[in-house]
Design goal:
Chain B: GO terms for molecular function: calcium ion binding; oxidoreductase activity, acting on CH-OH group of donors; pyrroloquinoline quinone binding. Chain B: It holds the Pfam family PQQ. The structure holds 2 protein chains of 2 kinds. By secondary structure, chain A is mostly helical. Chain A has 8 helices and 5 strands. Chain A has one domain. A 3-stranded antiparallel beta sheet of chain A has the order 1-2-3. In chain A, α2 packs across α7. The longest helix of chain A has 13 residues. Chain B has a 6-stranded mixed beta sheet, with no helix packed on it. In chain B, a hairpin with a 6-residue loop joins β4 and β5. The two termini of chain B are 30 Å apart. The chains are: A mainly alpha, B mainly beta. The interface between A and B is large, with 41 and 51 residues.
């Protein structure tokens, strides 16, 4: 990612917010897929992103992200990333978080414990069931934040790319 | 009042009944006697038989419509509030979720705080607690209040001033072992269960000395015979000895070591048979393909000797679970006429959607029937004693997530993983002979996949989405159940799952709470609604009643949360509604918000 002075970043952010109707944007900027690498789509900054076909068919990462989100995050963040009585909405959070922010929080955790609340996001860096799929989870939540992926299980998705299967096996061991 | 100086009593502004402070040897007699006194609520389950029935009858079907909030109390904690307070004499003991604050409230002064105890716990335990930092209540025995903290510390507090008498550590949250369940005290022992089925914890039930907190024995849910405290010749399942290595034989390799079988439900006790009863939970992981075999003794009803801990009989309800039908729900002990014969029965409403009636002395299976007609994963439980599959559920292959395999989505399984009923306990009225059961009416899609185990990290292995049964919009029912015949007598639909424990009373009124926050009273015979009051937050606590100063009170903890708060906050979607359908069902978020509060009700003077 290109490093910019904070004021510039903020200005761009505001600009993008105003432009939501025209071009979608989340905490990582414009999610439009520019390139792809073995079934994983990347935006103009090289961050992972989703790709949705005209029939609503989602790329494999978005689909795998739905599955892995539901297994590893839903128990706190609620169905479809919408938040719960226990943890905040990630659909909202992803409108603000960059790819780097996201990775840092999931790996390292986050905590806000006071007399008023007891919010603890566990650090998941050692959890293979999460970290081997972190890009998929990111892509899925990014798609949810941009309103590109609806609630529930995506009904159509691309086949599992061979590169994905190889990487998965290597990572899970 | 034997052991108190008058000065101390005056200072505390309370008088405690003499029975409460008799010597340690008398603890059992005290509790046996005390539980029979309906003015008090001396244990989390009301009585040892878990009836959650009160002989109090000032509040009746005729006058309950006039019920009013008498006083309220904020616990100062926002998370999900399960369980119910205790009342002993003039004092009420109220517990809260993490940080597990305990309050002693003076009933002579509208709940003035006599003492407060708040343990210091490492907040790292919070995210290890699957589905909220709930706590299901404290227990009383021998002048002590026993608290089971989130971090599995068991602490005994002096009931009169909150001073710590002893403390013991039951598990290690670093490995995913946490505490949510309410203790039970029988004679000189405190029984403590463990949570962590979603973290691969090989679970156990511990017995501690009430006197000083020494660990007396620990019985695991799976493993070698000695560690599960099973006698291969004497312990039976459905009348037959279980034989050697009954658990080990049903797991592949060492998988039993991370086998789950949590024990965080409610416990019951039969003083005549000297047996304690409880259920063990789901095997870990949720991916059935990764753990071939029956996975004994997960998903099992246990009857253990209250003193030695040895298992008398076991019954595994869901061998080789494929749906997370966690078997921890309460065992209600009631004597009932079945087939023209009076039987000592145990009634259990399992997550798997079957209501079981067993002989509690022998473990003989008498009735197993669906208590929600939507239940579809099994056609029935095989009741043919000569069949090789006697006592086993007849799984419908379409809904077998094991048969369908990894990375395959098995759709429309009823009930969902939260079960036709979860921990929210049912009540039994000896007056009507009916069981009053708070239920979920929710189905699911379930997709298992391969997971790897890391100590202290979630070990789940399946993705699921939930929704009401096809063509229906209510996500819960409050039902009356005839356990002799296995039949629903009446059923009141509820918009959300009913996640509150029920209370039956001699006044012919049954109480329960709803997730929107209503305390409701219904007619025990017909289910007709007689009263409702909207409390400040959703109810996942259990209704209790007591008498003070000659007047009957009803109390309930509000404070939405738990699994219900997580799953239903944003509302469920209807997968049958087609692409892009949003918010198919009501979102709990639109009805209630966090906040722990006790509301105490009474009739106007």
């Amino acid at each position: 990612m290109v490093k910019m002075p904070p004021t510039v970043t903020k200005a761009i952010f505001l600009l993008l917010l105003v432009n939501v109707a025209a071009a979608r944007a989340d905490g990582a900027g414009d999610p439009a897929a520019i390139t792809s690498e073995g079934g994983k789509y990347l935006d103009k900054d090289g961050n992972p992103t989703f790709k949705i076909g005209p029939d609503g068919k989602v790329d494999y990462y978005s689909y795998a992200g739905f599955v892995r989100y539901s297994a590893n995050c839903l128990a706190c963040h609620g169905p479809d990333g919408l938040g719960s009585t226990y943890a905040p909405s990630l659909v909202d959070a992803m409108k603000r978080l960059s790819y780097g922010d996201f990775l840092a929080t999931v790996a390292g955790g986050k905590r806000d414990v006071s007399t008023a609340q007891t919010l603890v996001m566990p650090g998941l860096a050692e959890n293979k069931n999460v970290m081997c799929y972190i890009d998929a989870i990111y892509v899925y939540l990014r798609g949810r934040a941009d309103d590109a992926i609806p609630r529930g299980r995506p009904s159509l998705h691309d086949d599992k790319p061979p590169a994905y299967a190889i990487a998965e096996n290597e990572c899970m061991g | 009042m034997r052991r108190f100086s008058t000065k101390l009593m005056l200072a505390a502004g309370v008088s405690l009944s003499a029975a409460s402070f008799a010597g340690p040897a008398a603890a059992q007699e005290d509790l046996l006697k005390m539980q029979a006194n309906s003015a008090d609520w001396v244990m989390p389950t009301g009585t040892y038989d878990n009836h959650r029935y009160s002989a109090l009858k000032q509040i009746t079907a005729d006058n309950v419509g006039k019920l009013q909030a008498a006083w309220t109390f904020s616990t100062g904690v926002l998370r999900g509030h399960e369980g119910a307070p205790l009342v002993i004499g003039d004092v009420m003991y109220v517990h809260a979720p993490f940080p597990n604050t305990v309050y002693a409230l003076d009933l002579n002064h509208d709940g003035r705080i006599l003492w407060k105890y708040e343990p210091k716990q490492d907040p790292n335990v919070i995210p290890v607690m699957c589905c909220d930092t709930v706590n299901r209540g404290v227990a009383y025995g021998d002048g002590k209040i026993i608290l089971h903290q989130s971090d599995t510390t068991v602490v005994a507090l002096d009931a009169k001033n909150g001073a710590v008498a002893w403390s013991a550590k039951d598990g290690d949250p670093g490995k995913g072992e946490t505490g949510t369940s309410a203790p039970m005290i029988v004679k000189d022992k405190v029984y403590i269960g463990v949570s962590g089925g979603e973290f691969g914890v090989r679970s156990w039930l511990s017995a501690y000395s009430l006197k000083d907190g020494t660990l007396l024995w620990r019985a695991y849910s799976m493993g070698p015979d000695k560690e599960i405290m099973v006698d291969p010749e004497k312990t039976t399942q459905l009348g037959k000895p279980v034989g050697p290595d009954s658990s080990l034989k049903t797991w592949q390799g060492d998988q039993w070591k991370i086998g789950g079988g949590a024990t965080w439900g409610w416990y019951s006790y039969d003083p005549q048979l000297n047996l304690i009863y409880y259920g063990s939970g789901n095997p870990s992981t949720w991916n059935p393909r990764q753990r071939p075999g029956d996975n004994k003794w997960s998903m099992t009803i246990w009857a253990r000797d209250a003193d030695t801990g040895m298992a008398k009989w076991v019954y595994q309800m869901t061998p080789h679970d494929e749906w997370d039908y966690d078997g921890i729900n309460e065992m209600i002990l009631a004597d009932q006429q079945i087939g023209g014969q009076m039987r000592q029965t145990l009634v259990h409403f399992d997550r798997n959607g079957f209501g079981y009636t067993l002989d509690r002395a022998t473990g003989e299976l008498l009735v197993a029937a669906k208590y929600d007609p939507a239940v579809n994963w099994a056609s029935k439980v095989d009741m043919d004693k000569s069949s090789p599959t006697y006592g086993r559920p007849m799984v419908v292959s379409q809904y077998s997530t094991d048969r369908n395999g990894e990375d395959v989505n098995t759709a429309n399984v009823c009930p969902a993983a939260l079960g036709t009923k979860d921990e929210q306990p049912a009540a039994y009225s000896p007056d009507t002979g009916l069981f009053y059961v708070p239920t979920n009416h929710v189905c699911m899609d379930y997709e298992p996949f391969r997971v790897s185990y890391t100590a202290g990290q979630p070990y789940v292995g399946a993705t699921l989405s939930m929704y009401p049964p096809k063509g229906e919009t209510n996500m819960g029912n409050f039902i009356a159940w005839d356990a002799k015949q296995g039949k629903i007598v009446w059923s009141d639909p509820e918009q959300f799952s009913v996640w509150s424990g029920a209370l039956a009373t001699a006044g012919g009124v049954v109480f329960y709470g709803t997730l929107e926050g209503y305390l409701k009273a219904v007619d025990a015979k017909t289910g007709k609604e007689l009263y409702r009051f909207k409390t400040p937050s959703g109810i996942i606590g259990n209704v209790m009643t007591y008498q003070h100063g000659g007047k009957q009170y009803v109390a309930i903890l509000s404070g939405v949360g738990g699994w219900a708060g997580i799953g239903l906050a944003a509302g469920l979607t209807d997968p049958h509604a087609g692409l892009g359908a949003v918010g198919g069902y009501a979102a709990l978020n639109n009805y209630t918000a966090l906040g722990g509060q006790l509301t105490v009700f009474a009739l106007p003077n």
